[in-house]
Amino acid sequence: MTTNTIFLLLLSLIIAGGLSYFQYFFKAKNKSNLIWFLAFLRFLAIYALLVLLINPIISKSSLEITKTPLAIAVDNSSSIEALKSDKKAVELYQKLISNPALKEKFDIQSYQFDADFKSSDKFDFKGKQTNLDEVAKNLKSINKNLTFPTVIISDGNQTTGNDYVYRFDPVNKVYPLVVGDTTTFFDLKINQLNVNKYAFHKNKFPVEVFLQYSGDKAATADFTISQGNSIVAKEKVSFSPSKKTASLNLLLPANKVGLQIFRASISSSTKEKNSYNNIKNFAVEIIDQKSTIAIVSAINHPDIAVLKRSIEVNAERKVILVKPNDVNQLQEASVLVLYQPNASFKAVFDNNKSAGRNTFIITGNNTDFNFLNQQQNNLIFKMSGQTEDYLSEFQSQFNLFAIDNIGFENFPPLQNAFGTITTNGNVSVLLSSRIRNVSTNAPLLAFAENQGKRTAFLLGENSWKWRLQSHIDNQSFEKYDVFIDKIIQFLATSASKKSLVVTHESFYNSGDELVINAQYFNKNYEFDEKARLTISVTNIETKQSKNYDLLKGNNSYSVNLDGLTAGKYNFTVKELNSNTSYSSHFEILDFDIEKQFVNPDVLKLKQLALQTNGKAFFENQADDLINTLLENKEYKSIEKNVTTKTPIIDWVWLLILIAALLTTEWFVRKYNGLL
C-alpha cells in the first residue's frame, strides 16, 4: 500500500469523524447513549463510502518458477505391437515420467501419436497409421516461442505424412528413443506397388513394383502376380549385400471387364521372420469403352478414310460407313459423324431426334446449309455460292476437355462456302477461322451442348491434309489421332444430369480413409441443402448391414465408413424426401501397412536427431538419455518476481455494509421520533 493511500485513509477517518460530530454533537443538547450510537453508525457509513472511493490496493510480490517443458511422445501405432515392443515402450515411458530429477527440472508433457496427435498417458498400440509429421506440427504450436527438448519413443517407421526428418524445429533438440529389435533379419519386402486404378478392356496396363531386401548374403527370389489360381506374370530377382533394392515394370493384360483383384508376392527358399510384407493385393477396374462410330456420307471423300483410320487407332472403337438412306444400320452406333449433310440426311436427323445420339457434323462444298439450319440451331449459317480457304487459330481458353495445340496454325486450309457463321446458345470454340491473315472471329471447330445432347462442328473439308501435315511436323500420326480421339471421347460420354450423384472408389485398402460423397439436386439442378441422405452398407459374405446418415458439407454430403473390415460390400444411398436412390458396391482389400516392418528405422531417427542437434538412444540406454537431459545446462528453470495487486475490501460487500449502516440509522431515528 502506498503512502498516498495511507494518508487518504487517515484523512477519511478525520472527515468521517468530523461530519458525524457536526451532525450529532455540534448543536445537540441531549448527548445520550442513543446519540452516540447514531453518530457511530453515521461515522462508519461515511468512512466506508470514502474507503470505497479511495479503493485501497495491497501489492504482494511472490517468486514464481517456470520449468522448461519436456515433451514425451509415444508411438501408439500397431507396428510397435507387431515388433513386440509395446510393453517395452510403456516401460520406458513410465521410467521417464516417474524420474524425480526429471520431474523437478522439467514440466513433463505426455502425448501419443499414430495418424493423429493428442495428449495422453495411456497407450493401446492400435493405430492404423504412423504420422511423425503431426508430432512436429503440433509441438511447434503447443510450445510456441519456447526452447524445449522432445523425447520420441518410436520405431521410426512412418506410413503417412511428410518426411519427418526436416519437419521438427532445428532449435529444439529431439531425442529419439528407438524401440524394436535392431538385429538384421533375412527379409524380402514389396516396398511399393504403383498401378492405375482404371484400365481399358483388351489393352495392357503397367504395374511398377519396388522390392526391398534385408540380409547379409546373396539371395534369389521369385516375384509373381496372380489372379485367382492363375499366374499372370513371373520374374526372378537377385539381391546381394550391395544390391538391396530392385524395381520391376510389368504389363498385364486387361482381359476381363469389371473390378479385377490381383495378388503380388515375393518368395524364396529361406524362411523369413515377417512374411506379411511379402504379399500385396491390388485391384484394377477394367472399363469396356468399346463403341461404334457411324460415319454417314452421301459422297466419297479422302476425309472419310482418314477419319476412320484415326478413330480406329483406339482399339475400343469401331467405325461403320453408312449411306443416308440406310437408317437401320445406325442402331448399334453411339456417335454419328455426319459428313457434309444435305436433304438426303433428313431420315438420319429424324431418327436421331428420338435416339438422342451425339453428333459430329462436318461441312464442305457439298453441304446444304439451308437444310442444316432447319435441323439444328447451335450455329446459324448465311452462306454464298462461293468457296473459301479457311486457316485455323487455336483458342487457348477452351476448357471442355484438355487439348494441346498440335500446330493447328501450320495446318493447310479447309475449304468451305464463304459466308457468315454465328453461334447461338452454349457453344465453345476450339478453333476459329481466318482468311489469309485476317481473323473472321467465326468458329472453325466448335462444340455445343443442349439439354444433355452434345454436338461437334468442323466447318470445312480436306481435313485429311491436317493428318499428313501433323506427320510431317512430328514424324508420327499420334498427335493428330489423339486429337480426333478426344473429340470422339467427348461425344461418346453421356452428359445426362442425375438428381443423385454419388462419388466413391471401387476398392479401398484396409486402413485407408473410406469416404463416400454424394450430391442431391432439385428439379432445377440446384444443390439441395435440405436433402436427407442415408446409406445402407451390407457385407456380402456375412449379410450384416449398417446404416449411416450423410452429413452436409460444402456443396456435398459425405459419410466416413472407417472401421469396416476387409471384404466385399454392397451399398445404397437414399434421399428420404424423394426416395431417389443409388446402389453400387466396393471392396476393402486386406492390407495392414503397419505390419510391413521387421526392424525400426534407426537411420531415419538418427537423421532426425542430427538435424536438431539431439541424439538417438536405444531402448537399453534410457538411463543415458535421462542423464543427458539432466546435464544439459540449456534447460534451466526461470524465476520470475510476480507482483499481484488485490483490493483490501471487496466493493460489493462494502456497498452492502454502507446500505445496512444507513438503513439501521434511519430505523433507529424513526423509532425514537428523531425524524
From TrEMBL:
Task: Provide the alphabetized UniProt keywords.
Answer: Membrane, Transmembrane, Transmembrane helix
The membrane spanning regions, by residue number, are: 6-26, 33-54, 651-668
Q: Which PANTHER family match?
A: BLL2462 PROTEIN
User: What is the protein name given in its UniProt record?
Assistant: VWA domain-containing protein
